[in-house]
Amino acid sequence: MDVITTVRGMKEYARAIKDRRETICLVPTMGYLHEGHLELMRKGRTLARHLFASIFVNPTQFGPSEDLARYPRDFERDRRLCEDVGVECIFYPSVEEMYPASYSTYVDVEGVTRHLCGASRPGHFRGVATVVAKLFNICMPDVAVFGEKDYQQLVVIRRMVRDLDMDVQVVAHPTVRESDGLAMSSRNTYLTPQQRMEALVLKKAIDRAKELVGQGERDTSRIKKAALDLIGEAPSASVDYVEIVDPDTVEPVGTIDDRAVIALAVRIGSTRLIDNAELKAP
Ligand code: PAF
Prior knowledge:
Elements: E1 2-4, H1 7-19, E2 24-29, H2 35-45, E3 50-55, H3 75-85, E4 89-91, H4 95-98, H5 117-120, H6 124-139, E5 143-147, H7 151-163, E6 169-173, H8 193-198, H9 201-214, H10 220-232, E7 237-245, E8 259-268, E9 271-280
Parallel strand pairs: 1-4, 2-3, 2-5, 3-4, 5-6
Antiparallel strand pairs: 7-8, 8-9
Bound molecules: pantoate (PAF).
């Protein structure tokens, strides 16, 4: 397996593959890989001849008071996991390589970033869209795989690809969960054993919402209240948002006509966790 740290080296590597008319799949990550990432990679292996992963903790998607400095990192472990799962090449650039001193160009996706994490993490999706656009230009994938756990991110990237006419197929992979239901996330490692138990309220709130919709409830304010009441039972939980949105526009909806997405961001202690699920009227 190759590890490439320069933009130039990565472009040359990808270009040689494209010149042979072979396909590339990219799985972009910020490292500290877990089973959720590995699932994306296993899926990626089936989608193209060459599988690339990128590992880059992207500073432009972190706000000033967020966890950039303490974001978990373990490249040696990530390298072994990538190799085991069949990654051919890891793109592992430094911050200076991706954002040299005079860097000044950003991608802003409007509309679908107005609510949820777009509202509570100003600038976050500008950083995500910018780095993903750069990764697409550098790694030249035909297809890229993203997890549905970051639902709004997936919508943002799809919109960017559509609006900027990028020749990349974006494939979504369902959220991978621990056996007790907690969505896998590199940030789960911040949780103490007590907080780890309390973190289950995110999935419980989603399950309660699904149950209500299954029973015929369509009024999103009643569904959100039930979810909030449940989260309120966890002493270390504080809600950032619980919202029910249109799956395409990511705009909040008052009633569920057919399909909607419940999305939540909850702090357990100081760890901010997100989760989401489709709510489908029976
Ligand atoms: O989902 C992530 O890990 C990141 O937001 C991504 C897509 C790798 C961009 O930095």
